[in-house]
Design a protein that fits this description.
Layout lengths: L12 E7 L2 E6 L10 H15 L6 E6 L4 E3 L4 H6 L14 H24 L4 E5 L2 E3 L1 H8 L2 E5 L3 E3 L13 H9 L2 H10 L3 E2 H6 L6 E2 L1 H17 L3 H15 L3 H15 L4 H11 L9
Parallel strand pairs: 2-3, 3-5, 4-6, 5-7, 6-8, 7-10
Antiparallel strand pairs: 1-2, 8-9
């Protein structure tokens, strides 16, 4: 399917519509194993912010182009030559406070770009394959659902380049898996782990044979979700994300407030009548 003309321009991503209401976003830098540099994560935020409110979109698939990698993470060579990790002091010592402010601004902006996946109103499924390192963990844990091919190689690599992961992995991965011992194991050692271990500890919810079948599985899931009420799907994602970060009492209260508005949708009687008639319901765009 063709891409709507009002979509944002994409230099580092391929964007297609494989089925009605479903967007497939591919990280498109395969010659560099889809490694990220700053223009890429800025573009990622722009794309997800666009589709978050696009009325034609109900589910998003995120994957990596090429046969070798979802993403190898940060393009370390590029980062060492430009941006805050580069030596731009001209050989002079940089004032500590000013350096800290510069780093903090950069990190917060980078975090916001990756968090755009999590904050997207539409559900996002990551279809992982090949190398899924560093930023690949940050990015995939921002998604709602993760599946992978049986050739996927994972690693939280940041300690191997002298820093603590700071774009989301250390905040999200413990909540995704619920196993602090395993999370500390892989984050402190930076060791590579494979698809079966990722499935065992809940990082992914399914493993498939090869990239093609993984994408097909992601499309089946996205198609199933896209058939549901977009009001119900958006609300479910919002309430699950809120409840993850709050107490049960706060989650129940927020749900009551949310549904006091959402229950007024026409989608409820439409879905009920379709269920009784044993036919698929049709819902308005959101």
């Amino acid at each position: 399917m063709t891409f709507p003309s009002n979509a944002p321009p994409c230099k580092h991503f391929l964007v297609t519509w494989p089925a009605e209401h479903i967007v497939h976003i591919e990280i498109n830098r395969p010659q560099k194993l889809n490694a990220f540099y700053e223009p890429m994560w800025l573009e990622l935020r722009q794309i997800f912010n666009h589709f978050s409110t696009c009325p034609d979109t109900r589910a998003i698939i995120l994957s990596g182009a090429g046969p070798k990698a979802f993403t190898a993470g940060l393009d370390v060579q590029h980062a060492s030559e430009s941006g805050p990790l580069a030596d731009s002091s001209g050989g002079l010592p940089l004032d500590g406070a000013r350096a800290a402010i510069r780093y903090r601004r950069h990190i917060l902006d980078f975090q916001d770009c990756i968090s755009a996946v999590e904050q997207c109103e539409k559900p996002v499924i990551c279809a992982l394959h090949g190398f899924t390192m560093g930023l690949g963990i940050d990015l995939s844990t921002s998604a709602d659902v993760r599946i992978c091919s049986d050739d996927t190689k994972f690693a939280v690599k940041e300690v191997d380049i002298g820093l603590a992961a700071d774009i989301g992995t250390l905040s999200r991965l413990p909540k995704v898996t619920g196993n602090f011992s395993w999370v500390k194991d892989i984050c402190l050692s930076a060791r590579i782990f494979l698809a079966d271990e990722a499935l065992q500890f809940g990082l992914v919810s399914g493993v498939y044979e090869g990239k093609e079948k993984t994408i097909e599985a992601a499309l089946r899931w996205a198609t199933l979700v896209a058939e549901k009420s977009p009001v119900a799907v958006q609300g479910t994602k919002e309430l699950l994300n809120f409840s993850r970060n709050h107490s049960i009492e706060d989650g129940l209260r927020y749900t009551a407030i949310w549904n006091s508005a959402a229950l007024q949708t026409r989608d409820v009687p439409i879905a009920m009548k379709a269920g009784m008639a044993k036919r698929k319901p049709t819902f308005e765009k959101l």
